[in-house]
Amino acid sequence: MLNKKEDKIIEGIYTEKKYKKPVKFVATAAMIGAIAGIGAFGGYHSQNLTDNPISKIEKPMNQTILATNTANISSTESVNSNVIDVSNIVEETLPSVVAVNTIIYNEINTGINIFGKSIYGGDTITQETDACGTGIIIGKSEENLLILTNNHVIEDASKVSVTFSDNEEVEGTVLGYDADADIAVIMIPLSNIPESTKTQIKTAVLGDSDITRVGEAAIAIGNALGYGQSVTTGVVSALNREVNLVDKTMTLLQTDAAINGGNSGGPLLNANGEVIGINTVKYSKTGVEGMGYAIPINAAKPIIEDIINGTQKKQEDIQKAYLGIYGLDLDESYQRMYHLPAGIFVYQTVENSPAVQYGLKSGDIITQIDGKSVVTMEELANVLEEHKPGDTIQISFMQLSRDQYIETTIVVVLGAIEE
Question: Which of 267, 301, 253, 210 is closest to 92 using CA atoms?
Answer without folding.
Answer: 267
